[in-house]
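Milestone 3.1: sequence recovery, worked example.
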């Protein structure tokens, strides 16, 4: 049977590149579209080193309607699209909301328009736990009511979900799955792929590995006066390879026609809340590297605690996480060492 061809937008990015590896290993043909704004085509080298396959990347700005259309014109036989391409820095989105609305929403709209024009049936949207805001009750489930978005980034994910739902309602031949990520972290076990931000990292795990390898002076823990077991914030860290696998399973569910509704939603976290101080301890235990850090003021926009229940993904996608915080830290550290060896 001919391979199903999938377009992965943001395919040179962190989650996109790891998802491409899982798709290729599950027999898909994959095309990437990524303008390399916050990514590097070296991710394609990592994918090739791991899978032996060279993925074509269209270097286009998907927020440009004609450029987005051109990808579908050149690839008219797509079986599905997995849409990662978006700006994702929470702090930056608070400073530059229009940049985030224009980029994240126009890219999404242009991709959906291309799907409608060329009859691409399956769509998977990269959503986020940030749609819940400061959730009142934990763990959150897919039915947990949304609170006010804490940033323009989170708002683009809330609005994005509504846009996808309304689009799917108007397109009877198409189905979609919305995947709400918690805190993606870690790297491919080969250390050939990982988080490679082109701008200074702001997420906890890459900051930890940059401090450990000496690229940064110290780690500042943003607050230890929260109402949590050790005063630091709680998050649900999910290994990027577990997250990648969930995308393949979601696509297979759509292809098998098993989706119960035209637009299903799944939370993707491992159901364990880990505090910042516990994450630091996990890094030290997993790597034997002592970490310099100090307690600083709270970071505006941070929620105190959030973690999920993944029962629905287990039941309907057959997905369960394989890795925890120790493997996240071990693979993130191996990637940081490999990445630094190459660039130094
Ligand atoms: C985690 C914790 C910080 C850096 C991210 C993405 C968002 C979404 C969810 C996908 C917080 C603390 C961090 C540092 C620290 N992902 N921290 N010192 O803010 O939960 O959100 O995951 O959609 O897009 O931004 O992740 O890694 O920035 O912070 O103390 O130097 O680590 O306060 O409690 P966050 P993060």
């Amino acid at each position: 049977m001919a391979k199903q061809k999938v377009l992965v937008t943001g395919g040179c990015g962190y989650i996109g590149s790891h998802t491409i590896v899982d798709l290729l290993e599950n027999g898909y043909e994959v095309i990437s579209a990524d303008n390399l704004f916050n990514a590097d085509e070296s991710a394609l080298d990592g994918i090739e080193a791991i899978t032996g396959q060279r993925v074509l990347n269209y270097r286009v700005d998907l927020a440009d309607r004609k450029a987005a259309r051109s990808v579908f014109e050149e690839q008219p036989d797509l079986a599905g699209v997995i849409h990662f391409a978006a700006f994702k820095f929470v702090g930056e989105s608070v400073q530059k909301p229009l940049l985030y609305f224009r980029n994240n929403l126009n890219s999404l709209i242009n991709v959906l328009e291309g799907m409608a024009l060329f009859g691409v049936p399956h769509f998977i949207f990269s959503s986020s736990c940030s749609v819940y805001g400061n959730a009142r009750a934990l763990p959150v489930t897919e039915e947990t009511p949304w609170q006010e978005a804490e940033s323009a980034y989170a708002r683009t994910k809330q609005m994005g979900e509504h846009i996808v739902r309304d689009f799917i309602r108007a397109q009877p031949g198409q189905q979609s799955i919305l995947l709400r990520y918690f805190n993606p972290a870690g790297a491919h076990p080969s250390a050939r792929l990982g988080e490679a931000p082109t701008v200074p990292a702001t997420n906890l795990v890459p900051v930890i590995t940059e401090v450990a390898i000496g690229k940064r002076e110290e780690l500042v823990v943003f607050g230890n006066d929260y109402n949590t077991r050790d005063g630091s914030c709680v998050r649900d860290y999910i290994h990027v390879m577990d997250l990648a696998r969930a995308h393949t399973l979601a696509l297979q569910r759509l292809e098998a026609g098993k989706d119960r509704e035209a637009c299903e939603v799944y939370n993707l976290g491992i159901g364990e809340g880990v505090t910042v101080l516990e994450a630091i301890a996990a890094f030290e235990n997993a790597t034997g590297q002592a970490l310099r850090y100090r307690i600083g003021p709270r970071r505006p926009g941070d929620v105190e605690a959030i973690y999920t229940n993944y029962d629905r993904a287990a039941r309907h996608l057959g997905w369960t996480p394989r890795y925890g915080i120790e493997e996240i830290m071990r693979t993130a550290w191996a990637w940081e060492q490999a990445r630094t060896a190459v660039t130094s």
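Residues 88, 90, 128-130, 181, 183, 202-204, 207, 219-222, 233, 235, 276, 299, 302 surround WQD (CB under 6 Å). Residues 313 and 319 are 6 Å apart (CA to CA).
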